[in-house]
Each structure stands twice: as C-alpha cells, then as structure tokens.
Amino acid sequence: MTHFAIGRGSRFLVAGLLLGATALLSPGASAGECPADQVKQGVRQSGETEPKGVSDTVLSHIDLATQAVKLEDTQFRMRRLVVEPGGVVPWHSHGERPALIYIVSGAITEYSSNCAVPIEHKAGDAAKESVGLAHWWKNNSNEPVVLISSDILHVKKDDAKVM
C-alpha cells in the first residue's frame, strides 16, 4: 500500500482548490447570466434578423445516427464564431437546438427573450442555450469576439445555415 504525505504548504493548496471548486459550484448569480430579478419569460419577441460581421466555422461534428443515441439527421457539432466590432449574431431560437457557448476572447452582449436587461458576456464566461430561449448577440466593443459553440443540430433539408 502506498501512502502519500501532504506537507503544510500542500494542505493550503488543496484547501484553496477545494474552496475554489465549491465557489464555482455554488448556486447564485454567475457572470454572464441574467440577474434573478430581471428574468421574465417572453420579454423580448425579436431582434436583429440578419447576420453582420460574423464568421461561422464548423470545426468538427459527429453524426449522432452513428452513435449509441441513434438520433437520425442530427449532429453534435463544434463551431468557432468570430464577431467583429458592431457585428451581430441574429435572432434565433433554441427550441430544438441546445447549445453551450464559451467566450474565448473579448466581450459581447446578449439580448434574450427571457431577460429584461442585456446580458454582458466576457472572456471565460459560458452561456447555456436551451428550450424556451430565443435571442441575438451584438459585439458593442472595439475588438473582435471569439466564441466556441457546441450544439446539437437537427439537420433539415431546408436549413441553409443556422446561427
């Protein structure tokens, strides 16, 4: 049997890591989320409808029909979006397309159907997008914003390109 001795300095490191992990997992307001007192269903019904100054590159995808879940015409995909200053990711719904967005660099504003105030996202934030959410995003800053989006897309014949 192997035993590990933890020195005094290491104990502080372990305690600090545990405290940090606990803080990350604690409920409450998080960066890049709608303040609890501003959550209102359907407060915004529409927004910018055309993409502007945004590039959307599919980095990789998995055909979920070939996986254990056997979801026909469905992809799990990862994309890199670059939103230029003044750029817009247009109004879209997540009724059938859950996604997780990670803000790699820059800052961007989300205008959500379920939040009475704009939501500010900055580098290091992650956003959850799922059923009941429609929204659009705008880069109000002077520098490009880089986002990584992972979503589940039901591929339809009439889909041109889904933001």
Write the layout of secondary structure elements.
Elements: H1 8-25, E1 52-63, E2 74-93, E3 99-105, E4 107-112, E5 119-122, E6 126-129, E7 134-138, E8 145-154
Organism: Limibacillus halophilus
Keywords: Dioxygenase, Oxidoreductase, Signal
InterPro entries: Cupin_2, RmlC-like_jellyroll, RmlC_Cupin_sf
What is the straight-line distance between the termini?
Answer: 54 Å
Mean pLDDT: 84
Briefly note the CATH topology name: Jelly Rolls
Low-confidence stretches: 1-29
Mind telling me which CATH architecture this is?
Sandwich
Structural class: mainly beta
CATH top level assignment: Mainly Beta
Description:
By secondary structure, the chain is mainly beta. It has one domain: Sandwich (Jelly Rolls), CATH 2.60.120.10. Strands 1, 2, 3, 4, 5, 6, 7 and 8 form an eight-stranded antiparallel beta sheet that branches. Helices cover 11% and strands 42% of the residues. The termini are far apart. It is globular, with a radius of gyration of 19 Å.
In short:
With 163 residues, this protein is mainly β. The protein has one helix at 8-25; strands at 52-63, 74-93, 99-105, 107-112, 119-122, 126-129, 134-138, 145-154.
What features would you highlight for this structure?
single chain, 8 strands, dioxygenase, dioxygenase activity, mainly beta, Jelly Rolls, 1 helix, Cupin_2, 8-stranded antiparallel β-sheet, disordered N terminus, 163 residues, globular, signal, RmlC-like_jellyroll
